[in-house]
């Protein structure tokens, strides 16, 4: 009966969003409590999913009792459990942060409704066992995120949201076309069934066309170079908690996860796709960090670094080796943590000072010790400084490049990390160190709940490396890596789990 927890990942946030829409506006504080409770429940259940996967292996939930491939399937395997923990732990901490941060906005209840819908969409993408429902959940999450980017309703937010929606719709069109072509040659939408049909002899030309469409579609969702143009506008314009969700987990669940699931488990990874992923990853690493170096807007700088860090993830996974995939997945988790923290730091700075311009800051660590300390930890982590979590995942990716004799990629990864360090030294120098400016003399540290979230994420940055210890990695990182490496063994894993 353990598989009965699977639909809860969608049902809980959907039910919370519905109840919140009815009551949230009428009772002060209700939205805060309901969102925190719902996201805490999801975080606990996602950890439980890791334990249940260890005990039972792959779990499949048959929606309405209909057997796949005719019925709809929801699946939890090693990669799914890994992604669910990543998304829902971050979502809970961001929900806590929002309790104080969103007080400066009106219609807080509406923010939580959209926030919970976005979580439902992301969780739905992760657990979906068929292509059409993956697309539907992807659209639910994407549409909620368009509205959240525009939540402030200022000119900048509306323009960024429109641009994001146009590019997101283009990406969705590519993905939908890919699904249509795949259905035309396999006559099924169930991923395991589709994979089996392709394994037994699908049209090579159609698969090649579909691969290109998915690369463009999910590349846009992931903001990989050259599909990144929407991200530097969308992420800085959103409220800080949503910037953290977008950079921390949305581009990974809608982009990277979906791409990995389809290319490895459904279509089957080929040397050509691996090479394309590695090239896109390397381009993103380098271009993202170079574009970030010239930024003075703190949130825009962080947005460009999201492009760069996603490049590390895709490069590691594109290598296709056990070490490369482990490094890519670990960096995906680590980036979720330190990038969410950095966006929450930038939100705290803007909350206290009213500016995102680094040239107008200075000496903030004196007035905002918690924000300053946690920002320093996150900056060191994203720069790959030991012993923070980002160091270990970058090291694994670089070693994996060398092991696979891709020395040029290893060089670009090292160079991007050095440039990242220089970029965040600028953030620390102009934002938190140096002399306190007179007009900032009245600045105060942010409220309690914002500090709690930042401290919790900083602790994960500090001790995240312990996830590589054999006692912990076996149930979390290694099972996710093994699921990716298993490729089209996904067929037997899913059909074998149907009871």
Describe this structure as you would to a colleague.
- The chain is 75% helix and 2% strand.
- With 499 residues, it is mainly alpha-helical.
- The chain has a two-stranded antiparallel ribbon.
- The protein has helices at 8-23, 30-56, 78-101, 108-127, 131-149, 155-186, 191-199, 204-222, 231-237, 240-267, 271-293, 298-319, 322-353, 364-367, 369-382, 389-403, 407-432, 448-463, 470-473, 477-486, 490-497, and strands at residues 59-62, 73-76.
- It is built from 21 helices and two strands.
- α10 packs parallel to α12, α10 packs antiparallel against α13 and α13 (322-353) runs antiparallel to α15 (369-382).
Largest sheet: 2 strands, antiparallel
Element string (H = helix, E = strand)? HHEEHHHHHHHHHHHHHHHHHHH
Task: Kindly report the average pLDDT value.
Answer: 91
Identify the strand order in the major beta sheet.
1-2
**Which of globular, elongated, flat, extended, rod-shaped describes the shape?**
globular
Q: Give the structural class.
A: mainly alpha
Share of helix, binned: over 70%
Rounded to an integer in angstroms, the radius of gyration calculated over CA atoms is: 21 Å
Compute the number of strand runs. Answer: 2
Low-confidence stretches: none
List its salient traits.
499 residues, mainly alpha, two-stranded antiparallel sheet, 2 strands, 75% helix
Ordered list of secondary-structure elements with their pairings:
Layout: H1 8-23, H2 30-56, E1 59-62, E2 73-76, H3 78-101, H4 108-127, H5 131-149, H6 155-186, H7 191-199, H8 204-222, H9 231-237, H10 240-267, H11 271-293, H12 298-319, H13 322-353, H14 364-367, H15 369-382, H16 389-403, H17 407-432, H18 448-463, H19 470-473, H20 477-486, H21 490-497
Helix pairs in contact: 1-2, 1-4, 2-3, 2-4, 3-4, 3-10, 3-13, 3-18, 3-20, 4-5, 4-10, 5-6, 5-10, 6-7, 6-8, 6-9, 7-10, 7-21, 8-10, 9-10, 9-12, 10-12, 10-13, 11-12, 11-17, 12-13, 12-16, 12-17, 13-15, 13-16, 13-18, 13-20, 15-17, 15-18, 16-17
